[in-house]
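Lab notebook, entry 292. We have the chain sequence and a SMILES string for zinc ion, and the next step in the workflow is to get a structural model of the bound complex before anyone spends time on docking refinements. Request logged below.

Task: model protein plus zinc ion, output structure tokens.
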Amino acid sequence: MNLVEIFELFPTEDACLSFLEQARWKNEPRCPYCKSTKATPMLKENRHHCNSCNTSFSVTVGTIFHNTKLPLQKWFLAVCLMLNAKKGLSARQLSRDLKVNKDTAWRISMKIREAMYESEQRNMLHGIVEVDETYIGGKPRKTGPDDKHHPRGRGTKKIPVLGMVERNGKVKARVVRKDQLQSRKLQQLIRRNVDITNTTLMTDQFGGYIRIKQMMPHKVINHSVWYVDGNTHTNTIESFWALLKRGIVGQYHKVSLRYLPRYITEFCYRYNHRKHEDLFNYTILRGLGVAR
Ligand SMILES: [Zn+2]
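Result returned:
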């Protein structure tokens, strides 16, 4: 879906509301409070009256659109813009694109990220899985890699992020605590996310991966010797890190790293659904709580 299609399909608030009603209820409004389907349409503002519990409700109750004062068309445009922004979209840019203030842009982008959240346990990764950690945040380096004040990678104050990706498949990435990169805990994290009976793991030589061989096939890349040794490489996860970092540094550098997990969610979602044929529709369904 692109912006022109959004304008054509959803020219008015009514068009947006009917789309949401169809998606959520298949045209049989169900009271979100008591689940009754005995509802009567009300005259004002596309609301429905529940004849069972005597409340009134609209299709947005309990969804990411709940209580919004912003026209739904702007929400739909925001979803579309975020899905199409491979490198991420700052609140500032979104506020310009939608002609809303920056706080509103920030708030709705955070709500849309909620719809993108996928729980860790769903789908175990399998096949060839590359695992790697990276570090995000901290002050930019002003000098060379030997600068002791701004060292790179392990051992710095940056936030550790662990990523796992199937070759030609899905990615999982999340913020971890430093102690979770110790071998026993790392082993647990991998076990929770990877189907160990059906996977060959590829990592670099980081000591945290030392116990992996005990539970599954494990190939180790020696970056200092040869970058790509046939099939043994971690290029897939490294490309994902590059995309994520370019996005975060480029778009979100002024945003607190407190929200880093949500940006990671957004980048994983776009990556995991890159081949989805109607991601706009699917994302709206998730925002309504219909798809998960
Ligand atoms: Zn009711």
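Notes for the group: The CA atoms of residues 180 and 186 lie 6 Å apart. Worth checking against the assay data. Residues 125-254 form a domain with the Nucleotidyltransferase; domain 5 fold (CATH 3.30.420).
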